[in-house]
Amino acid sequence: MDRAPFYLIDAFTESGKVLGHPLRGNPAAVVLLDEFASDAWMQERANEFNLSETAFVVGRGDQNFDLRWFTPQVEVDLCGHATLATAAALLDAGQILRGDNTRFSTRSGILTAKVVADRIELDFPGQQTSARAILPQLRSALGLKANEILYCGRAADDWFVRVAPDKLGPLRPDFKKLALIEARGVVVTTHAPPGEESYDFASRFFGPRVGIDEDPVTGSAHTALAPFWAARLGKMQLKAVQLSARGGWLEVEVRGLRVAIIGQAQIRAQGHLRD
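The chain above was modelled as a monomer; its predicted structure follows.
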């Protein structure tokens, strides 16, 4: 796999005024391969990049690709921002065309991406949340009082917690305690405060158990956030912001059992791997 091309790309970079500076998105590494290497080789490279996710992609012809994602510690079933970054890398490498549907075979089934103008639209399976009583250790790890939790639930491998708008930004979890919670991560979310028109809902994502204390922008979490907020806000198309230190901006649309996740990407660096 020596000399395999790679890209470093910021995903979900569209600027806005929510944080008072241009939103800078979530960095991902994308490695273009002729065939997948061993799991150990890919895990080692993901650990070397030390980003929340590294994507490894193999072309199969006719706009079809196999795609896998690794955090610095584990392989994951679904990653939105690294899929967006992969589409941007393949476009730059001349392996896909604007306006065409690109199909990715993944551990979460077939996902598609389409580049339209300066945006990339992903098509992912939607997820429903089911209400659960909050674990005392989860509430303690988040540093929230019982009356500050407006909703608690699960969606696939993540816990979901809803709070009031003024509680999300100041949240300072205890990551050591949070890493003991059996879940991929914890999504904390809120609706836009009164008078805010630039977005409909906001979130933060914490995943110390998989090696990511706080993810800058989590596309996969929006496969559940979109249906959750669509049901509560009464509209299928929504604007979302992730209030991490870097920040990120997404548009989502609920389409039956699927969710469209739309954003921009910026290529920051590219090169070739060396063993």
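DSSP finds six helices and 18 strands in the chain.
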